[in-house]
Amino acid sequence: MPEGSVAPPVAAGTTITEAVLDAARAGAARRGARPALIDPARKLGSGAFADEVTAAADGLRRHGVRPGDVGAVHVAGVCDLARAVHAVSAAGAVPALLPPGAAAGEVAALMNASGARFLLTGVDTAGRSLAAAERSYVRQVFAFGDVPGTTPFGRLLEPGPAVGAPPAPDPLRDTALRLCAPSEDVTHADRLADLYRLGGALGLGGGDVLVLCGADVPALTWIGLTDLCVTQGATLVGVPAPGPRDLLEAIVDHRATVAVVTPAKLRAIAFDHGRVPVPCVRLLVTGAPSAEAARACRARHGWTVSLLC
Known about the structure:
Layout lengths: L15 H16 L5 E3 L2 E3 L1 H17 L7 E5 L3 H13 L3 E4 L6 H11 L3 E5 L3 H8 L6 E5 L6 E2 H4 L18 E6 L2 E5 H15 L6 E4 L6 H14 L2 E4 L5 H10 L4 E4 L1 H8 L11 E4 L5 H11 L2 E4 L2
Parallel strand pairs: 1-11, 3-4, 3-5, 4-8, 5-6, 6-7, 10-11, 10-12, 12-13, 13-14
Antiparallel strand pairs: 1-2, 8-9
Helix pairs in contact: 1-2, 1-8, 2-3, 4-5, 7-8, 10-11
């Protein structure tokens, strides 16, 4: 394990959310003011992340969320993704990930197929989310940001009457995450195994900055990389816009050490005519990379290229 990394604790019966929150709290003192998650409009430290998830889980239960309920998550940013998924999980419910770019009709169909009874959305996705919710079985909508007709996520963080903790799930059998496209239920044990697999393959440490556009990877990889950065003390920078120039600018602006790219983005970055003043970036490609583009990245930028496994 890289020096300075924070290993997620493993214990019999541990859920993915317990592991991530425990590691976030343990790493908060080491990180200082360094953020764990960055979106264009928000930065979130690991300690604040753990506190908000815990408070929001209590708030969800006060608003009627019950163990086993399914909560649809339709967001575009990494800060919202991490808080939504783990708050729903900590409340004893099942988060169901919807594709951020899906149209309202698809969102409605996926909500119904997943059995969602409540929804967490964001400013960027709310127009489609709310239109879809009207054609679904969703009863409550919670939103990050100012979205009329919804319950603000901030309200979930407000102190309120004590609520009983949900029953402890069975990590080997109970669903930790419901994937909607394609449809699949993933257990806590599966999510933990995926977290450790990614950790061993990527070798992220406390000084790393990973840049990623969530639309470039499957939903399970998106949340897996988010959890990995929180647990390992690295920083994840989310890039909502899909263009290669947006990704390259984020690499430069945040002095990234690692970035996830599609084969098309790899080629665009390799032959970019602008000066790239960031040395030693590792590019993790989501599919088979062009040998020509990989050679150009090494020769022109000094960046290494490998497959994201």
